[in-house]
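Reminder to self: C-alpha cells first, then the designed residues, so the page reads top to bottom the way the pipeline ran.
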C-alpha cells in the first residue's frame, strides 16, 4: 500500500464515522459501527505519522496478518477484563441503547478497534518522545538480582486482582440478573478503591510477566532510567481520552455512573474518567508486549 492509498483509507474511515452527525438514526448497530470507523480512522492517522517519522508501521508491516492475530488475542482479554470488572460488576458505565443482542454483537469488534487505537496512540507518542529525549529503544535491563525478584513477586499479583474482584462482586446488591445490567444502572456499593487496587495489581502482574520474558514494560523501564514509555502513556492518555470520549458526548452510546467526581468535568467529560485513562495503558502495554516475540 502506497502513501496515497493510505491517506484515502484514512479519509474513508473518518468521513464514514461522521455520518451519525448528519442523520437522525440512533440505531445502536449503526452508531456502534460508526464509532468503530472513527477509532480505525484515528488509529490509521497515528500509524501514518509513526511511519513518516520512524519508518515503522503496524498496517504497512509485512507481518500485518500476524499483527492482527496478536491484536485480536489482546483485545479479547481486554474486553473480558474491562467489561467484567468495570461494567458488569463495577457498573461504572452502561449502554442505554443496547439490547443484550446488540451488546454481544458489537462489544468484541468495538474493543478490537479500541485496542488498535490505544496501541497506535502509544506508538506515535513513543516515537515522538523518543526523538525528543532519546533512548527510543527499550533498555537492556539487568535480569539478575533484585529486579528479577520484584518481577516474580509481581507475577503473583493476579491473586490480588482476583480477590478484589470477588470482594467487589459479593459487596454489590444486584437488583436483577447480572447480564441485564448492560442497559441499566444501579447504585454502586463497592468502594472505588477496591477497583483501583484491582487495576494496579493487574498492571503489575502484566509488568512482571512481560519483564521476565524480556519484553517492553513501563515500571521496570523506569527503574532502569528510561522514562520514554511513561511519558508516552501520559501523552497518549491525555490525547486519546479527549478524542475518544468527546465523540460519545453527542450520542451517549455509553454513560458513566458510580465514578468518583462524576459531576466534575473537563470539556464535558468526567474528571475521574480522564484521570483513570493512564491505568488502561499501564495494563495494556505490558499485556501486548507479553504476547510479542521475546526481545
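Designed residues (295 positions):
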Amino acid at each position: 500500500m502506497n502513501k496515497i492509498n493510505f491517506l484515502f483509507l484514512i479519509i474513508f474511515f473518518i468521513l464514514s464515522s461522521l455520518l451519525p452527525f448528519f442523520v437522525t438514526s440512533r440505531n445502536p448497530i449503526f452508531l456502534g459501527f460508526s464509532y468503530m470507523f472513527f477509532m480505525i480512522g484515528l488509529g490509521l492517522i497515528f500509524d501514518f505519522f509513526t511511519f513518516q517519522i520512524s519508518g515503522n508501521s503496524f498496517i504497512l508491516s509485512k507481518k500485518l496478518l500476524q499483527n492482527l492475530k496478536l491484536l485480536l488475542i489482546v483485545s479479547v482479554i481486554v474486553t473480558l477484563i474491562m467489561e467484567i470488572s468495570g461494567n458488569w460488576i463495577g457498573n461504572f458505565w452502561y449502554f442505554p441503547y443496547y439490547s443484550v443482542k446488540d451488546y454481544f454483537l458489537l462489544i468484541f469488534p468495538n474493543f478490537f478497534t479500541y485496542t488498535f487505537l490505544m496501541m497506535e496512540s502509544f506508538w506515535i507518542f513513543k516515537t515522538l518522545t523518543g526523538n525528543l529525549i532519546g533512548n527510543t529503544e527499550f533498555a537492556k535491563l539487568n535480569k539478575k538480582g533484585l529486579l528479577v525478584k520484584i518481577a516474580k513477586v509481581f507475577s503473583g499479583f493476579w491473586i490480588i486482582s482476583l480477590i478484589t474482584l470477588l470482594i467487589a462482586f459479593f459487596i454489590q446488591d444486584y437488583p436483577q440478573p447480572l447480564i441485564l445490567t448492560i442497559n441499566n444502572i444501579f447504585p454502586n456499593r463497592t468502594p472505588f478503591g477496591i477497583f483501583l487496587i484491582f487495576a494496579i495489581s493487574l498492571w503489575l502482574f502484566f509488568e512482571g510477566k512481560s519483564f521476565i520474558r524480556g519484553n517492553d514494560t513501563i515500571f521496570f523501564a523506569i527503574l532502569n532510567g528510561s522514562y520514554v514509555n511513561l511519558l508516552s502513556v501520559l501523552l497518549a492518555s491525555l490525547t486519546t481520552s479527549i478524542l475518544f470520549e468527546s465523540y460519545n458526548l453527542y450520542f451517549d452510546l455509553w454513560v458513566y455512573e458510580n465514578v468518583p467526581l462524576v459531576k466534575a468535568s473537563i470539556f464535558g467529560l468526567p474528571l475521574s474518567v480522564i484521570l483513570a485513562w493512564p491505568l488502561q495503558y499501564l495494563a495494556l502495554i505490558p499485556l501486548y508486549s507479553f504476547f510479542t516475540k521475546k526481545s
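The longest strand covers residues 93-94.
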